[in-house]
Amino acid sequence: MLDPIVAFFVRVFGLIGRGIGFVVGILLWPLLWLTGWYTQRNWAIKGVVALVLVGLAAFYGYFIWQTQIWTNFNPDYPNARVKEDSSKTLAGAAANADASAALSAVQGGSAVQQTAQGNAQSCQRSAIVDITTDLIDFNVNQNAWIPSMLASKLGFFGIPWKNTPFLDNKAAFQTGINQAIRRTTIELVDTLGRVRGTSQIDQGLQSARENMNWGETVWYVGSNGLTRPTPGAYRAALKTLQEFNDRLGQCNATFDARADNLMVFLDRISGDIGSTSDILRAQIQASDAGWLDPRADDRFWFAYGQLYAYYGLLKATHVDFNAVINDRNLRQIWDNMESQLRFALDMQPWIISNGSESSFIFPSHLATLGFNLLRVRSQLVEIRGILDR
After folding, report:
1. Record's superkingdom (predicted)?
2. Tens digit of pLDDT for each residue in 137-179?
3. Is residue 277 left, alpha or beta, with left meaning phi > 0 and alpha meaning psi from -120 to 50?
4. Rounded to 5 degrees, what are φ and ψ at 72?
């Protein structure tokens, strides 16, 4: 009675096995053909082919290693550089000036360091500039800059890595950090590093801004021939920013830490975060493939990198504008905003899922991160509103 049934299933599984074997054969045929061709060549050709294969293995092996190893990744990185001190004066102020005198000088429309140069040996360095240099160093010195590596530019058989689920997370994270660095260098040139926008632009800061706006994917060879690769440009920006802060510490540069400049800086940051939240929203609407969405990971890590950078930069802003924040009674709301940012950085899923927000199986990591982005942005807008009163 059971023999026909058993025979049926035997035939079915036999056909399935032959089908699988046929597919595997098709996939392995190029490798088998190359193996046969290789064994029939003379030793000279075999040596050249072996060297090429070893070179390719080393080339992609190094690239894969660099994309998977995130050296010195630490969401608490600002704590080593930025120390909150309620007695600290404004950035750029004479180191021996008290906070109330520094704030009064800035509100009166004069740069503190200009009035203090005659009797001060040093002025307060900018924590914003220090954190910016740390982030650049993290991106291009402590880690390899992935977006301009040749293997990254070649992609996966010509397909950009960002369109695959592989090897693009670190590159997206680095470009997210870089977005925040670029925004900061622009504001340093336009508002923070000069007096009320009417004084001469600091040439060191201008050079840093130009270098940070260098293309993120530039290799040694471009469309116009030999050129400077991206990491070289960013290292040049790092050097000029450090030189600016050294001059600031010697009272030979300007950092205009006024409330209206702080308001403009927060406006720019909230606009940046709002733009990124819209990128996440667009990807959420475009796909609900859960763990199978190849673009979800790079969207997530770009936004995460931006938050990672702005967490440090906003903690540094708290220090540089300490007197302004205390004078406007912003300390509590500022601390809450920093806590929200740090809480968002605890979200580090191993695999990024972009499922439906009502899904039971596939979580929506993009929606969760987008919520945290908007929470931070709403707090920035609230702080900006208080400064504007």
Report:
1. Bacteria
2. 999 999 999 999 988 888 877 777 777 777 889 999 999 999 9
3. alpha
4. 60, 25
